[in-house]
Structures are given as C-alpha cells and as structure tokens.
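pls design
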C-alpha cells in the first residue's frame, strides 16, 4: 500500500512538472498561409492600416518555477507528513502546492508582455493582422505593402 502511494505521488509530481515546461514562441508578425518555396517570388499585397490596438498579455512561464517549487514543496511536505501513508500524502500535497506557487511566482516576476496588433485592410478587401512589440512610425491610414509576411510602410 505504501509503494502505491509513493508511485502515485511521483507520477503526479512528474506530470505536473512536465506540463509546466510548455514554452510559447515569442511574439512576431503572424499571417495566414505557408512560407514561399525557396527561389519562389513572394506575393506582394497593398493596403491601408485600419487600426492599431494595444496588446497586454501574461507572459508564458518557462516551467523552472514550477519544478523548483514542486521539489521544495515535496521536501517540506515530507517533513510534516509523519510516517507511512501520512508522509506520502504530505509529500504529494507539498509537491502540488509547490508547483502551483512556484509557477505563479515565476509568472509575476516576468510581468506583462506588451505589444500592438496592426490590422490592415488590403486593396483586395481582405483584412490581415500583424502583432509587433511596438508600432514604430506606423499610423492609422498609412499606405503599406505586405511582402513575404512582412509589413512595410510606404
């Protein structure tokens, strides 16, 4: 019975630690479609900047805080668990609490990710949006060119 509880604690702790390791790629210009084949001519579109909207989003965590918190929580929980099944339960609860607390501490230390979404009304009538860390010298009403997924002010 004791080994089943210990195995359950290990499985949950490992699963929680691995789940916290998901990393999102950095913010960049996003456009639909596939990249052009090597040597192919990139399609060029023209349009007008329809809107520029501020973006505020919570940064993604690396998982390091969750792992460190889980290990620390398991060690502390083991001290308060007594012996036998109580120790296994204390280790498990400590690990779970540590993962949650460690992940939140890491998230708060990273702060918010700021950026802008630039929406372009193309000459063909479609709308395309791009996300950047800042708008630079781009303004609503500016004429732009979209070439190879890149937005260029004209």
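designed seq:
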């Amino acid at each position: 019975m004791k080994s089943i509880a210990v195995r359950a604690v290990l499985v949950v702790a490992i699963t929680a630690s691995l789940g916290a390791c998901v990393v999102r790629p950095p913010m960049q210009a996003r456009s639909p479609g596939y990249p052009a084949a090597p040597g192919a001519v990139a399609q060029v579109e023209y349009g007008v900047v329809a809107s520029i909207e501020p973006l505020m989003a919570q940064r993604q965590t690396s998982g390091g805080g969750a792992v460190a918190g889980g290990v620390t929580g398991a060690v502390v929980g083991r001290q308060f668990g007594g012996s036998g099944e109580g120790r296994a339960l204390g280790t498990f609860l400590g690990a779970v609490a540590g993962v949650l607390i460690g992940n939140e501490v890491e998230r708060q230390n990273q702060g918010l990710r700021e950026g802008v979404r630039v929406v372009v009304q193309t000459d063909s009538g479609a709308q395309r949006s791009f996300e950047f860390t800042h708008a630079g010298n781009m303004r609503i009403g500016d004429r732009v060119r979209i070439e190879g997924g890149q937005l260029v002010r004209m």
